[in-house]
Amino acid sequence: MCCLHCRFFQYIGASPNQNRQSPANSWFCIAAPQPKQLDTFIKFIHEELAPRQVNTLILRVDFNYEFDSHPELRDSIALSKRDVKKLVKACRQHNIRLIPQINLLGHQSWASKTTNLLRVYPEFDETPQVKMPEKYVWPNPDGLYCKSYCPLHPGVHAVVFALVDEICDAFETDAFHAGMDEVFYIGHDACPRCSGRDKAELFADEVNIIRNHLAERNRKLWIWGDRLIDGKTTGIGLWEGSFNNTYRAIDLIAKDVMICDWHYERPDQTAVYFATKGLSVITCPWRKPGFAVLQTQDMVRFRKSVTPVMKERFQGMMQTVWSGAGPFLDEFYGVKVNPDSGEDTASNCFRTMFGEIKRLSEAN
């Protein structure tokens, strides 16, 4: 008799043992651990991800790696190549596909801190006239959420692609996650290169440039999907959707880009929208266990109710974690728990989502 997880994938019409060139059907996304957390995280891979048959692990690396191509962009404490190879070995042991992420385009700052790329290369800043505040608040007169690099700066891609290639080689991967979520600064009126440009075309061009670079090395591009949703017309809002017209890029990007469709405040069914546009899509919960249950049920229903052509575009479920690896592991193992969070935690959502997969398997 096959395992419960295998029966779940039979139920949704997918194979649990797809080859490494094919997208998997269950994912886990979290910040890459710092060196001091590495052993605990590898234990988590062996004891928690593998038994749940998690097929793909996405690690948000950003600058948490000892880059040789641009050592000036390393975090002060960062994973070594040897550390990464330990992660590769642990994942390979369980046939878990390992995909690194570096935030490209947006998320080049956070709160009052400019992150490494724009700190070292301020000339890449889309909005250099917007100064980082001593104390960050939202909303603010500058509309500052996170800084972006200018996609039309002539020097930016040489730097970021060196990082992308190096981290993909280190992780021995056939895919790369570029982030690209919550891009508020794009085509800014004060940018000498981008001013007056169509924001949807700017966003789509950047997606396609990254996609084409990866394709030259037989790698696939993954991104978050929020900038491709019309936040105003749908009522989804400016965080999980776009208010600056980038949503029209959905018709301009390559169809082999994998879309990670995150919704954390409601279980919105936009996976159907992406699939209808010809894009493969993954549904991504975070910290609301009840929503994760509904989203998992929706994924099963979508696959059962659509045409064979559409069916394979509904790729499955991905638990996302938006703390560092250390705080998540502390929460998961009960080392440090915030009593004010109640049931709405990433670790509880993780357990609940995979519990629902098991329940659906048993019901079938």
UniProtKB/TrEMBL annotation:
Task: Cite the InterPro entries for this sequence.
Answer: GH, Glyco_hydro_20_cat, HEXDC-like
Domain named Glycoside hydrolase family 20 catalytic is located at 78-289
List GO molecular-function terms, semicolon-separated.
beta-N-acetylhexosaminidase activity
* A Pfam family of this chain: Glyco_hydro_20
Q: Which UniProt keywords apply?
A: Hydrolase
> Could you confirm whether the keyword Thylakoid appears in this record?
no
Task: Look up the signal peptide feature and give its range.
Answer: none
Name the family the entry cites: Belongs to the glycosyl hydrolase 20 family.
Q: What is this protein called?
A: Glycoside hydrolase
